[in-house]
Write a structure and sequence with these properties.
The complex is a heterodimer of chains A (112) and B (115). Chain A is mostly beta strands and 112 residues long. Chain A has no helices and twelve strands. Chain A is globular. In chain B, strands 2, 4, 5, 6, 9, 10 and 11 form a seven-stranded mixed β-sheet that branches. Chain B is mainly β. Chain B is 0% helix and 50% strand. The chains are: A mainly beta (112), B mainly beta (115). Chains A and B meet through strand 6 of A and strand 4, strand 5, strand 9 and strand 10 of B.
């Protein structure tokens, strides 16, 4: 069955430090992949998406993600985090018949 | 520029009561979705509607019904609420064109507590 795994439940980084959030997918064909961010009390907002082509994709708010087929990964990165990046982050993959599968999320805390 | 609007934002029900959660989108999207979000479980799809006039079950449909009233509106009904349905409910929509290329746009959620 298709699945999306985010192995880190909670990560804390210092403001200004770099960030990498992990995402692994289980999929037969080339997947369509997404990263979403959810601030407290809000819905999910799309950060970036990968469909094909360049495996390094740029998103909003200074985020980027790299698709690595050999590792079945789509990790999210940011060179320098800001306190406003504290939120929950969800990796997702297009499944079929209009459906998207979400990972269980990684909560990001920022240390001042 | 409303996007996806959900009502109500908060609701408390007693076990056995019924309720309809409303969702409307103004982006002319074909597909609409209802999810529930529970701690540590991400978002789980309850029902979805790929286009006006169609609805299909998602991962956790039991205890829920949906109605795609028109292209804009997609409602979720709890006929007899149970404490296990305490959750945050999100509605989402995605656009026209090739479905797999379309990201989903989310409402701000409905926080539902069943006592």
């Amino acid at each position: 069955a298709q699945s999306v795994t985010q192995p880190d439940i909670h990560i804390t980084v210092s403001e200004g430090a770099s960030l990498e959030l992990r995402c692994n997918y289980s999929y037969g064909a080339t997947p369509y992949l997404f990263w979403y961010v959810q601030s407290p009390g809000q819905g999910l907002q799309l950060l970036l998406k990968y469909f094909s082509g360049d495996t390094l994709v740029q998103g909003i708010k200074g985020f980027e993600a790299e698709f690595k087929r050999s590792q079945s990964s789509f990790n999210l990165r940011k060179p320098s985090v800001h306190w406003s990046d504290a939120a929950e982050y969800f990796c997702a993959a297009y499944s079929s018949a209009s459906k998207i599968i979400f990972g269980s999320g990684t909560r990001l805390s920022i240390r001042p | 520029n409303a996007g996806v609007t959900q009502t109500p934002k908060f609701q408390v029900l007693k076990t056995g009561q019924s309720m309809t959660l409303q969702c409307a989108q103004d982006m002319n999207h074909n597909s609409m979705y209802w999810y529930r979000q529970d701690p540590g479980m991400g978002l789980r799809l309850i029902y979805y509607s790929a286009s006006e006039g169609t609805t299909d079950k998602g991962e956790v449909p039991n205890g829920y019904n949906v109605s795609r009233l028109n292209k804009r509106e997609f409602s979720l009904r709890l006929e007899s609420a149970a404490p296990s349905q305490t959750s945050v409910y999100f509605c989402a929509s995605s656009g026209t064109g090739k479905v797999s290329n379309q990201p989903q746009h989310f409402g701000d959620g409905t926080r539902l507590s069943i006592l």
